From TrEMBL:
GO molecular function terms attached to this record: S-adenosylmethionine-dependent methyltransferase activity
GO biological process terms, semicolon-separated: methylation
Signal sequence region: none
SUPFAM superfamilies to which the protein is assigned, alphabetical: S-adenosyl-L-methionine-dependent methyltransferases (SSF53335)
Protein name: CheR-type methyltransferase domain-containing protein
Record organism: marine sediment metagenome
InterPro entries per record: Bact_Chemotaxis_MeTrfase, CheR_C, CheR_MeTrfase, SAM-dependent_MTases_sf
Matches recorded under Pfam families: CheR
Amino acid sequence: MISAAASLTEDQWIEVLYNRFRIEVSQDRRPALHRAIGAYAQSIGEDNESLLAKALSRQLSAENWSKIIHLATNHETRFFRNRAIIDQLCNYAETFARPRVLSVGCSTGEEPYSIAIALAERGLANFKVHGIDVSEDCIAAASEGIYKASEAIPSRYVKEVTNGHLRFYDWLKDFVTFSQHNVMSDRPIGFTNPSVIVTQNMLIYYRKEARHRILEGLALGLPIGGYLITGPSEDAGWKSTDLQRLPVPTASVFKRTQ
């Protein structure tokens, strides 16, 4: 049973994360987050309460915040997680001479690399895929490009390294870049004029109003003719005067028309 003090500390962490970074943590994930922050606090000679006190008084370092943000966000992903959406994305990308694809909430990079493989399999050789995530740790792992062996990855794109892990060849990694970014911030994304923007299983962790704000911000970066793709129903009924919703059963797809 959670004590009143522990419950208060948990609520305060949720408030701090939202007020400072606009990160929302679902009710069912909060106890696990509280335990994870407690374990991290112990690893640096603190406890949950003392770490929270430093957070409230703005005494935490950028490295501390990076670790806490990583703990607070969901990183569940896998290669070719939703093949139908990737295939649809490739159909749109092929209509551009030099497609630029932005993967939002890319976690440890499986989605951007899946997209790059899918585009390469279609014979495209002049494209860029850029992944963004709020977690610095995830971006570091994605940039390294080393993963556990997966049957979803064709062998021609990877080489064996150690302990059953694979590393993407540099020629494929040259198509893929990553950067840390919080989509709830006002800071511009360092990847201009994307032909296609895709976000899957990230919006579900935000409330309706936050989802709409995120989508509005992403839409602003699209050129005319560009596409915005989310998982089915993840847009929470979002409507835009500048983007047209397309009738696609496997995803929520919008196209900038003006």
